[in-house]
Amino acid sequence: MSTRETEITASTAAAAAGATAAAAAGATAAAAATAAASATATATATRPATARGRRSRGAIVEAAADLFYAHGVAATSLDQVLERSGAGKSQLYHYFPAGKRDLSAAVVDRQIERVLGNQPRLYAIERFTDLTTWADDVATLHRAPGGPFDCPLGSLAAELDRDPELRPVVAAAFQRWLAPLRDAAARLQAAGELGDAEDPDLVAERILVTLQGAMVLGRALGDPVLMRRSLDALLAGLRPVGDADTQPPGGLG
Fold first, then answer.
1. Contact of 182 with 204, CB cutoff 8 Å
2. Concatenated DSSP letters for 3-64?
3. What is the Cα–Cα distance from 171 to 113, expressed in whole angstroms?
4. How confident is the model over 130-170, as pLDDT tens digits?
5. Are the C-beta atoms of residues 47 and 54 closer than 8 Å to each other?
6. Tens digit of pLDDT for each residue in 206-217?
7. In angstroms, what CA-CA distances link 237 with 136, 191, 207?
8. What element of type H or E holds 121?
9. Engineered SS bond to 231: which of 19, 123, 135, 198, CB 3.0-4.6 Å?
10. Phi and psi of 163, rounded to 5°?
11. Between residues 177 and 148, which one has the greater pLDDT?
């Protein structure tokens, strides 16, 4: 074979390999998108059209959310959910055909609604003092009787992460939490109260990582003040240099 033929053969093989890799990557991305769409559809497809149906389904989801949080998904039976909700088995399987998997997806959606509903200040952060006030609310919550508390969403994620059909549902819920954090960081930056070099996406991730880590470690150590210390450290790192006026006396404490 001539040198030119060898070059053509090698080039053709490389192109074929590249096309195969691209196709494989595309197939993987498509599969991931399909799984996410399927998981989202699972969580929403059986939502009833009537008010009575919505109440029945809501009672099942609320009961499951409370039980999953208190005892874990694996340790909670569907019979326990039915007993607590007052619903019948036929109702449960009407709204959640795949049983606990579909119910778990609905509980993930409900828990992120609860989490965000308990943080109304998150949507009104315009100045750094607003961010400090929001953080103070979070820290105070974890010093309440019974605290520090597990994250309702984080505890679900730890159990459901091994299920490929539920993982996209959990990821979507965390994205819903990241979104208002990202928006708040962008508003602070636009107001000159967050450094120009900061990336709002990364700031949102840092805040959420701090919250999740502090909840896990605070709960494990039985330390209700760990959340406050963690948020103090986070805010100190985010506060623009020389912006002392945004820090109330004594930090968050």
1. yes
2. HHHHHHHHHHHHHHHHHHHHHHHHHHHHHHHHHHHHHHHHHHTT--SSHHHHHHHHHHHHHH
3. 14
4. 999 999 999 998 888 888 888 999 999 999 999 999 999 99
5. yes
6. 999 999 999 999
7. 16, 18, 11
8. none
9. 135
10. -95, 110
11. 177
pLDDT of residue 241: 59
Q: What is the DSSP letter of 240?
A: P
Q: What is the mean pLDDT of residues 165-181?
A: 97
Could you give the count of Cα atoms lying within 13 Å of 200 in the half-sphere of its Cβ?
A: 15
Are 87 and 56 in contact by the 8 Å Cβ rule? The answer is: yes
Average pLDDT, the chain: 83
CA distance 132 to 135: 5
CA distance 217 to 226: 8
Residue 88 has pLDDT above 80, yes or no: yes
Q: How confident is the model at residue 242 (pLDDT cuts 50, 70, 90)?
A: low
Q: What's the CA gap between 238 and 194, in Å, rounded?
A: 7
Confirm if 218 and 142 have CB atoms less than 8 A apart: yes
CB 194 within 8 A of CB 240: yes
Cis before residue 48, ω within 30 degrees of 0? no
Where does residue 148 rank: exposed (0-12), middle (13-18), buried (19+ CB within 10 A)?
buried
Instruction: List, in sequence order, the alpha helices (H) in the chain.
Output: 3-44, 51-71, 78-85, 89-95, 100-117, 128-141, 152-160, 167-190, 200-221, 226-238
Are the CB atoms for 77 and 84 separated by under 8 Å? no
CA 11 to chain centre: 46
Structural element, H or E, at residue 87 = none
Q: Which two tokens stand for residue 64?
A: 């499951």
pLDDT-based confidence at residue 99 (cuts at 50, 70, 90): very high
pLDDT exceeds cutoff 70 at 70: yes
